[in-house]
Amino acid sequence: MNGRTPGPWLVTGAGGMLGREVIAELGRAGLPAAGTDRHELDVTDPERVRTAFRAYRPAVVVNCAGWTAVDAAEEQEAAAHAVNGRGPELLAEECRRSGAVLLQLSTDYVFDGRGSSPYAEDAPVAPRSAYGRTKLAGEAAVLHGLPETGYVIRTAWLYGAGGPNFVHSIIRAERSRATVDIVDDQCGQPTWARDLAAHLVLLGGAARRGGAPAGIYHGTGGGDTTWYEFGRQIFAALGADPARVRPTSSEWLAWRAPRPAYSVLGHDRWRLAGMAPLRSWRTAFRAAFDEVRRAVT
Questions:
Q1: For a disulfide at 229, which of 56, 225, 236, 241, Cβ 3.0-4.6 Å?
Q2: Residues 98-111: pLDDT tens digits?
Q3: Which residue numbers delimit the RmlD-like substrate binding domain (predicted)?
């Protein structure tokens, strides 16, 4: 594993946007950690997972590895399930053997998206896409395999400097197009990857101390908005005219996988862990924007 020193935290998918933020947050907290990308640790390979646990001896595992190509999953559900379903199952098995805590990242796509008030952590799940089904399989594997040390953190509308993400796309579009059409019939919660990473580190620490109940948490920014309104906010932050952003309907877009119309998640369980939920998405966006803009080339 590239000669890295074993540490109490292991972050899979560390080459991705969220994984990099988790590694950085652990560094700021002075916590020893190791990060692996898919070339170093294929979470679908039982032997490589076992080897990683022997090498790193983790006390906390943050699984940021995942199949995130939502539309491609419709045609490659078995491949997506291997990463999103079987991978968490293998990690949970090793965590059970070693006594490690597992933080498993999941998604709003486990819900049907037809709600009108924030989905509670225990709200009924009904995924409408292959991506949602595979992520739900990963949730079930962790919650069943680690009833006392397994944590599922659902997130949505994630953005950050690491990209690719919606904010990057809109910044590039503003530079190259006179107008930009964005759907106004999907409601959700923009979430800065750094804010989520900070909460993951706090949750993992609380879990190790026995101060956070195992189970499901929702890691999204507070409040809600539409993709259209979020796009207007990005234009305004750039000093561009938000009127250049035009509303459109999801039905005009040729997505293979259905998108949730309503992705607003409730955050009550954080208080059981003695923690506040993530801050308002608007406050986070103001804090994040300059750094995210500088990262767009």
A1: 225
A2: 999 999 999 999 99
A3: 10-293
